[in-house]
Amino acid sequence: MYATTLVVAVVWIVLDQATKIAAVRSLEGQVPNDLGPLVLRVIRNTGGAFSLPLRLPWVFVLVAIIVTVLVIRALPQTRSLGLATAYGLVVGGAIGNGADRIFRDGAVVDMLDLDFAPLQNFPVFNVADIGITVGAMLVAVLMVLEDRRLAREEPAVLEPLGHGGAAEPDAADVQSETDTPTDTPTDTPTDEAERPVQVPPGTDA
């Protein structure tokens, strides 16, 4: 689980930073590149994710650190590769935008602008934002599915015990009890049978 989360996070960080470097070199100061439903334009975002108007860059760095710590603490209890992958997306996106806050004067490079109804007014975003959003949605969905799976398994565990009561005896145990011999003897000789018969004197034996 640790390896899966780490690999996904590193891959997403590299992908995010590579697209930002390419966008700054080829698009900054240029006319937006219209690709139909998607327009490529560079915006230096000093606010929050998806260009939210929050001017607290170091708070976002702290949030990225907190998210990473929370994921590391959750990994020992993680048993799903899908959940580990989702954690990697969230961590990769948080670190990707956090790196911009540190190395780009507190501004995040956004370059993806949707231009189709009904999302034509959607804020400009980047690859890191995609990782955070998709990863968080996957975490929520997978946790709900895991809770439902555990809820289905719990009655199956309690059913053999009579829903939490004492277990009923097996047929083999009942049979073994009926085959056990009793302690009362059937042909025990009495004291009269063991006592010798005394013949009176003068009589024939």
From TrEMBL:
Region (Disordered): 157-205
Location in or out of the cell: Cell membrane
Keyword Membrane included in the entry's annotation: yes
Record field: compositional bias (Low complexity): 178-188
Pathway in which this enzyme or protein is active: Protein modification; lipoprotein biosynthesis (signal peptide cleavage)
Keywords assigned by UniProt, alphabetized: Aspartyl protease, Cell membrane, Hydrolase, Lipoprotein, Membrane, Protease, Transmembrane, Transmembrane helix
Leader peptide range in chain numbering: none
One annotated Gene Ontology cellular component of this protein: plasma membrane
Keyword Lipoprotein (UniProt): yes
Database matches in Pfam families: Peptidase_A8
Protein name per the record: Lipoprotein signal peptidase
UniProt similarity note: Belongs to the peptidase A8 family.
Cited PANTHER family: LIPOPROTEIN SIGNAL PEPTIDASE
Encoding gene per record: lspA
Single GO biological process annotation from the record: proteolysis
Transmembrane segments: 56-75, 82-103, 123-145
GO molecular function terms listed in the Swiss-Prot or TrEMBL record: aspartic-type endopeptidase activity
Recorded topology in the membrane: Multi-pass membrane protein
High-level lineage: Bacteria, Bacillati, Actinomycetota, Nitriliruptoria, Euzebyales
Annotated function: This protein specifically catalyzes the removal of signal peptides from prolipoproteins.
EC number: 3.4.23.36
Catalytic residue list: 110, 129
The reaction(s) this protein catalyses: Release of signal peptides from bacterial membrane prolipoproteins. Hydrolyzes -Xaa-Yaa-Zaa-|-(S,diacylglyceryl)Cys-, in which Xaa is hydrophobic (preferably Leu), and Yaa (Ala or Ser) and Zaa (Gly or Ala) have small, neutral side chains
